[in-house]
Amino acid sequence: MNEKILGTLKELRVPGVALLITALYLAFLIGLSAALSVLGIAILFVLPFYLILSAFSLPPLEKLCFSFFIGVAVFSIPVYWLGMVISLRLAMIISFILYAGAGLSLHLKKR
Amino acid sequence: MRIKRTHVQASLFLLVYLFALTLWTLPFQENRVPYGEWDAISHWELADFTAQRDHTFVYLPSFLDFSYGKDNRFKPHTLWYPPPFHTDMAIVSVFAGDRMVPIYLTNAIFATAIMLSVGFVMFRLFGFLPALLSSFLLSLSMRDILPYLWGQWPERFAYAFIPLVLYCLYRYYLSYTEGERKPVYLYLMAVLLASTMLIHPLAFFHALLGLAVLCLFLLFSTRKLPLSWKHAGIASLLFLALFAVFPYQSGNVIVSFLGDGRGLPEGYDPSLTQRLFQWSLDPELFVGSVPPSYFSFSAMHGLWMLPFLLLGLGVLLVRREHRDIFLMAWLVSLYLVLHRDLIGKFNLIHRSLSATAHIFIPISVVGVLSIPSLLPARAETKQWLRYGIALLVVGLGLYFSFPQAYATLDGAYDSPLVRLNAAQIGASEWVQRNVPEGENVSVMGPPEQLMKKVWWMASYSHRTSHYFEGFLRWETYADERNETIRQHLLNDYLVLDYSDIGRLQDQSLARQWQEFERRQLANHTLIYDRDMIRIYKYGGSSDE
Q1: Are the C-beta atoms of B279 and B334 separated by less than 8 Å?
Q2: Interface predicted TM-score of the whole assembly (ipTM), two decimals
């Protein structure tokens, strides 16, 4: 099981380094909140859907691109509906666990 | 140490993207106060209010309902945009712990996402160099920069989905006709199409039209039609599931499309022959809405690009490979979208013009990079020529397009008369903490040059702001004026903001307000008096 996850994480090495450089650059250019914003977008919107799409036979670049665009549209759906009754912060955490969990289980099942 | 080709490509693309982010974040790198036209105010306050309140909502709070309560034609007093775009910004604002930078940076990332999607599609279809050049030139596109600054936030981002939607259909179509079925692309297309609608319906309709045209072009080209009821059924279910997840907003899209009473402007009767050879629109029809230069190819793209665009069109028409058909279908769909006035759909037609760079630039890049292939030379020489041409195009972009893009972004909303000053932010934050939700906060005046500040103060404080003097004069409030006056006299908080008066040439307004204060407000409670801003509770008892 660790090998499968490691395989996916290995695909994210280059994008991960690019993300780090971007975050550091924005921290220098604008400030810490800019760096945190970029990290938030990557962790919350992109990562869970990259894991979900890893269940399908897609090239890494396609997975990365699609996960961003699908993530920004779909991640907030449970956040919006849950956020009416619970704290937005809690809704974000639940949504992340939901999607990342689905991604991990799909990903492991498929491989 | 051997350097991998993919690492070099990734580094170059990252360089281009960081260049774009540096450029597009110029308006708020140093000045961390919200800015923009009326649309920007609505988008920022939706995201900010959600983040600050730490809850989402179905029915609009009073300060939003006052301005936008009727914009959702299907279910008034609810969100007029599907929630994802603004909820995303609220999420990032919460994650990063700031009211301004996370929202504006997220918007900058979303607005430059067209570089990512076009870059991706061009990379997959034409290779790295066309992808890199296309993304670089898009970062300088004035047709994208201007609406980004004005405040057409969701629409900017939604356009980035179109090339991906078309790409997915393209991959599915070809995989089917080549015998190696890949239904995942059809499912992705459905999800991305629904996502486009969740961001902005204008791009959704453009994507739909693009899909139809691409399907038709590929049908003519391959003489095959991929028809799998199972795949189509699953794709449809995915689309419908996302379409239905926000019923009030999806309903608004349907009602607005079907029942759009905002047809052609008076006196405008376009004929097919008149519009057939006209790509753009008549700027006279949009006076007061967008500047005339917005409709000019030379002003927005630069005449230097025209020969490359024409060359690119020639290459596509002559070569007609599947990837060329892809670009042609995208171009034709944009043409059709820009001529929808011929079927009476005039509303927001000028906004579709902002999508031209997204297809003009890739076609131009294909054109210019095909020049070496026309020359009798060895393959290696041709490749070096392509690199040289790429550098030339970068140079042309930096020489012709960069100065205008930089000047526009660097000087955006720089005047202290268009962004809130520290006193106004302080007063707005005080109002947010001390004035109950639902109360009216009327700002006296203000003069025309400062009108937007009233709205920004309302956004910052999350309180409804009436414009007291304007309110008494304007036709907008004519029907219910007496009743609303009665309500105001009983309940309003009145703001007299002298903080900007010193910057105006006409000081008579300051004297009028001081006289009004002396004569009319002497018996009412002054509850805030700081930094040349005073707030009175009209008719109420002392709160502090």
Answers
A1: no
A2: 0.96
